[in-house]
Amino acid sequence: MSGRMREGHQGTGPGAITPDGCAVDVYRRLGVGREPDVIEAAVPAGAALLELGCGAGRVTRPLVERGFTVTAVDESAEMLEAVRDRVPGVETVCSPIESLRLERRFDVVMLASYLVHTAEHDDRQALLAACRRHVRDDGCVLIQRAGEGWHVEVPREREDPGGCTVRIVSADLVGDGVNSVHAEYVFPDLRWTQTFLSRPLSKADFERYLEEAGLAVDAYLTDDGTWVRARPTAR
Asked: Which CATH number fits domain 31-145+202-232: 3.40.50.1450, 3.40.50.150, 3.40.50.740, 1.10.287.1080?
């Protein structure tokens, strides 16, 4: 186990498990999908990018290979060890996103992995505040959000490029608009599970939370609306 497990979160399977229930070895194994293509098309070439919640560096490596200067942030030392194995020489910072203060700003700040759907409103605003204080006034913030129906179209599964079947088994309401989501990651040789809390956000709510944090939607970058580019508003 890696750190104290957050309330409502759980993970099972071999190896280190992070406080939100993520198995480090799962993220070492998962492949990369279209994320690098979406990011590359949305930001200036060679931009300095702050990746918040980088995990094991699944997206970090292709971004560095495409010429971006990446600073990778995660609260899990085990995840960051995997990043450094995958991308030698990359700058890593071990810190919760909410309390991160690097005293410098970046062309691009990225908040992926549906972190904006955290159950607690205060936590979400702290995440978005971290994005705002680290982005240049002429920069942008890239956010990954859950698509329409993500919490209700269960069970479902997909095949990951890394050879894993990813199943969202259930999403059960546990009160105050929050769902307890149960996921399975099944490889030919090993299996992991994760249970975590996630709050569905309407498009209107999502945009309102951004506005409260000093950000405004500039563009929905994908047809399904899961990737968003936001710009800082006047302070």
From this structure: 3.40.50.150
Contacts by 151-157, CB closer than 8 A, 24 or more apart: 151/179, 151/181, 151/198, 151/200
- What is the tens place of the pLDDT at every residue in 157-205? 999 999 999 999 999 999 999 999 999 999 999 999 999 999 999 999 9
Under 8 Å between Cβ of 101 and 80: no
Q: List all residues 6 or more positions away from 149 whose beta carbon is below 8 Å from its beta carbon.
A: none
- Strands (E) in the chain, as ranges, are 10-12, 48-52, 69-74, 91-94, 106-111, 135-144, 156-159, 165-175, 178-186, 191-198, 215-220, 227-232
Collapsed DSSP state (helix, strand, coil) of residue 49: strand
User: How far apart (Å, rounded) are the C-alpha atoms in residues 28 and 23?
Assistant: 9
Cα(170)–Cα(151) distance, integer angstroms:
8
Do residues 108 and 131 make contact, with C-beta atoms less than 8 angstroms apart?
no
Return the number of other C-beta atoms located less than 10 Å from residue 209's C-beta: 17
Q: Which tokens belong to 39?
A: 């990011």
| In contact, 210 and 202? CB cutoff 8 Å | no
CA distance 47 to 151: 34
Coil, strand or helix: which one is 180? strand
- Does pTM top 0.85 for this prediction? yes
Residue ranges covered by each domain of the chain? 31-145+202-232, 156-198
